[in-house]
Write a structure and sequence with these properties.
Length: 543
């Protein structure tokens, strides 16, 4: 959006927009589209709430193309609508906008959702699904160097290299592929230059949020000014109580945001919580709504835009809610069956992983209790057990081996050289974890490497799955052999989509293979009988 805006403002160093068609871009949140008003009114209200406009934009402007262009409506945070039924209605509404061919073009962002939820878009012309690519090796180096330079570090280059080496030692390569997690890891290093990096994603979140809390509590000057200001107004006891119970309030907001209820105003939710929990004789003052938002924003996990509160990232809300839930679960995990039913919903994956991992890390809890129950369950339960390993939860060598062996217990028919359909789900999930780099904790695991190589070389499995297995093999076992497998698949690919997938994996894995990728994609772009859409996708991969 910034790129498009700078282009229209004719700024000197503005880049040519990524979107070839002329568009005027606006950003709305998925929650903005849950009001009972017409579409154009919802857009008008959303841009007004942003607080950056000099005057109100009437809803009629969004009913027609602006100056012969189209509106590009970026719908952000679809996954933050945690209620599946509400999300389903919203997706139907958005699909209706696509079918109407109106003045709006849509770009919808979300964490992965269950495939069936996306069915309203099935078969609609002009609809594409994309996965956000993580930082490659070159981008990771650039990010680290710029981060330390921005902190005023006179030795930013050497410190960036040292940071990247520590990331590799901690098996946190997946962290640097995700911009949010890369920022968290770099911020942790800046605040704690002499401490080792956390091992795994769960510990990284845990230490980062602890850092934020320590920084907040250690800033005595800010707290003192807050208390003085409220004491002068006659509300000193209210302010002192709020400071003492800020974490409880943030936990309540996190649970409300992630429990599947229809979204509501977080600031209203906070005020309602205060009305219920402030001690007798204490009341939150009228007209101090904005001051509550400002105070909570000092936590570092929520932002206040002058009107509304929002979590800086949905995963912060998921982690905080999971931490509270994990603390309430007894050591024998008696209600595991109820929890396990949630695993089937992909939208619950992060929060469930955090809950199980944080429960396992609590003193007196035996992680084997949960892992054994997961391993006796369905495929998605076994995948969750593996995610505990890949997220850095210490299981011990024997239990980790059991998890991996149980997951890899496929019914591969060596005589026929194929896998039965029932095992394809496991293969797909395993390959997906590899693509997210979450298998970095398992580097060097011999049997896993053997299985991945078998998947990569087995006829009868989709080439897409074989390509992902090749990429996983490169990460877990041997980079040159994984690259060779991918190049072999690219050369035998029967259609443009398979060629594109192989080239995308090669580009992410091995920058030195850029000339090969360029040659393959160049041949694809100029080949006859290749769709315009495939040519555009090939051009987007070309470096």
């Amino acid at each position: 959006m910034r790129q498009i805006a700078r282009y229209w403002l004719r700024e000197e160093d503005a880049e040519t927009p990524w979107c070839p068609a002329a568009v005027a871009a606006i950003r709305v949140t998925a929650s903005d589209l849950l009001t009972p008003y017409p579409w154009s009114r919802q857009l008008s209200d959303a841009v007004g709430r942003a607080g950056t406009l000099l005057s109100h934009v009437d809803h009629s402007h969004f009913e027609v193309p602006p100056h012969g262009m189209r509106w590009l409506v970026v719908v952000d945070g679809l996954d933050e609508v945690s209620s599946p039924s509400v999300r389903e209605r919203l997706l139907e509404k958005l699909a209706g906008q696509v079918r109407s061919h109106g003045p709006c073009r849509l770009l919808i962002t979300s964490q992965p959702l269950p495939q069936e939820e996306l069915s309203p878009f099935s078969g609609l012309p002009g609809v594409g699904f994309y996965t956000l690519r993580g930082f490659d090796g070159e981008q990771q180096h650039a990010f680290a160097a710029r981060w330390f330079a921005a902190q005023g570090d006179p030795d930013a280059g050497p410190h960036a290299k040292e940071f990247l080496a520590d990331v590799a030692d901690a098996s946190l390569e997946e962290v640097l592929q995700v911009p949010l997690l890369a920022t968290i890891a770099a911020a942790f290093r800046t605040r704690n230059p002499d401490r080792p990096l956390p091992r795994g994603r769960v510990e990284l979140y845990e230490m980062f949020l602890a850092d934020l809390k320590n920084a907040r509590e250690g800033n005595a000057e800010v707290l003192s000014r807050f208390l003085q200001r409220w004491t002068v107004r006659g509300y000193g006891k209210v302010a002192a109580w709020l400071v003492q119970h800020q974490d409880r309030l943030l936990t309540h907001l996190a649970r409300e945001r992630t429990t599947g209820k229809p979204p509501s105003s977080l600031l209203d939710t906070a005020l309602e919580w205060l009305a219920r929990h402030l001690p007798a004789g204490l009341d939150w003052p009228e007209g101090a709504r904005g001051e509550l938002g400002q105070f909570l924003a000092q936590s570092g996990v929520v932002a206040f835009d002058g009107r509304e509160l929002s979590f800086l990232h949905q995963s912060f809300a998921e982690f905080i809610a999971a931490r509270d839930e994990a603390a309430s679960i007894p050591s024998d995990f008696p209600d595991f069956d109820r929890w396990s039913r949630r695993i089937a919903n992909a939208a619950n994956g992060n929060r469930l992983l955090f809950t199980l991992a944080l429960w396992a890390r609590r003193p007196g809890n035996d992680v084997a209790v949960v892992v054994r129950k997961l391993l006796s369950g369905r495929t998605d339960h076994r995948i969750m057990a593996l995610r505990l390993v890949t997220s850095g939860v210490p299981l011990g060598e024997a239990l980790e081996t059991t998890v991996i062996e149980r997951l890899l217990d496929f019914s591969h028919d060596h005589a026929q050289g194929r896998f039965p359909d029932s095992d394809h789900a496991v293969l797909a999930e395993l390959a997906e974890l590899a693509e997210l780099a979450e298998l970095s904790q398992l580097r060097g695991h011999r049997r896993l490497a053997e299985r991945l190589r078998t998947i990569a070389t087995t006829e009868g499995i989709s080439l897409s799955l074989r390509a992902k297995a090749s990429r996983a093999y490169a990460r877990v076992a041997h980079l040159p052999e994984g690259v060779r497998l991918l190049k072999s698949l690219a050369e035998s690919a029967g259609d443009s989509d398979d060629t594109l997938e192989c080239c995308r994996h090669l580009e992410a894995l091995a920058p030195q293979e850029t000339p090969y990728v360029v040659a393959r994609l160049g041949a694809l772009v100029t080949a006859p009988n290749v769709s315009t859409w495939a040519r555009l996708r090939a051009a987007s991969i070309l470096p």
